[in-house]
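Data availability (excerpt). All sequences and predicted token strings are deposited with the supplementary files. A representative entry, YchJ family protein, is shown inline so that the format can be inspected without opening the archive.
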Amino acid sequence: MLCPCGSELEYALCCQPLINGQKTANSPEQLMRSRYSAYATADADYLYRTYAKASQAQQNLEEIAQWAAMTKWLFLEIHHSSAIPQNADELPVVKFSAHYLLGNKYHKMTETSRFVLESGQWRYLDGDVSEFDEVREIKRNEPCPCRSKKKFKQCCGR
Ligand SMILES: [Zn+2]
Ligand SMILES: [Zn+2]
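Structure token line:
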């Protein structure tokens, strides 16, 4: 299967080795993509362990798992990845939009995420949601919002 992150690479050659723990992300964007793929494959464990320590305490594995499972992840759009700052006080950011369905409601969430290096590994610290939720109901005969060019009822709306 193609990687959910939209790289057009095979999942096994893209985010899967990160999610399996065989590789670590070499950039904030790579970590962000792998976290999106972990949502798409409902791997709550990976999502939990890629939070920065400071953020992990506020996270609940069960809630992450529930949220990932009830959501149908459509695609990811990366708008911008900052360069790694020279100054250690500044954190790199990635701005993205996640497109997903909850039932037959289409959502788009745009977030600017901040990343931090902990013990040599990139971790997700937090994010500012700049645009929440263009919620729209998808009709059964409409084109599917996942961009498959199929009708919704024959694709993600099945
Ligand atoms: Zn990927
Ligand atoms: Zn679809």
